[in-house]
Design goal:
Layout (H helix, E strand, L loop, with lengths): L3 E5 L5 H13 L5 E4 L5 H6 L2 E5 L10 H11 L7 E7 L11 H12 L3 E3 L2 E2 L11 E2 L2 E2 L2 E3 L8 H17 L1
Length: 169
């Protein structure tokens, strides 16, 4: 069976809460947890499937820990790896770059040959633009803990069920 890792910063509050919901829905024994701030090439080589946390910082930027690892990532062949990305954003406070980090990270991974899974519908969200949007879907799972926290558990649960099929089929 393929090995799956979830990668998020252990030093965040909201991303960590969402990651814990993903782990619970996925099954604690079925997924290994990796601190994004300790990410290295060996971690990427060890797993087949990845669930990445990519909260959008400031005006549509990736967090520093992703920025620091991207030069190494861009040198890797990820053609045999599958990635799913969830990200946090604020569709009312930052409607012009809602969950951009998902799209930024997905584009980098695709440039390295990775397969991206876990797209979700844009229905139920209100925003102006997002680099995570492709047509009528997001390339990952956007989470808005500021304005739609009550929807998070259900969104995560449905997303993880789809991921299991996409990762293991």
């Amino acid at each position: 069976m393929s090995k799956t890792a979830i990668i998020y910063s252990f030093h965040t509050q909201k991303s960590k809460k969402v990651a814990e919901k993903v782990i619970e829905a996925f099954g604690k024994d079925e997924i290994e947890v990796v601190n994004a701030e300790e990410l290295n090439k060996e971690v990427i080589e060890k797993y087949d499937n990845f669930i990445l946390s990519a909260p959008t910082w400031f005006d549509g930027e990736l967090p520093n820990y992703w920025d620091e690892f991207i030069p190494d990532l861009e040198e890797m062949d990820l053609s045999k790896k599958t990635f799913a990305i969830f990200g946090l954003g604020d569709q009312k406070g930052y409607p012009e770059n809602f969950c951009d980090a998902i799209g930024l990270l997905a584009s980098i991974l695709e440039g390295c040959g990775a397969k991206i899974v876990g797209s979700t519908s844009v229905e139920g969200y209100t925003f102006d633009s997002s680099k995570a949007q492709r047509g009528n879907v997001f390339i990952g799972l956007p989470i808005d803990q500021e304005n739609q926290a009550r929807l998070t558990k259900d969104r995560v649960s449905k997303w993880v069920e789809r991921l299991k099929g996409e990762f293991f089929n």
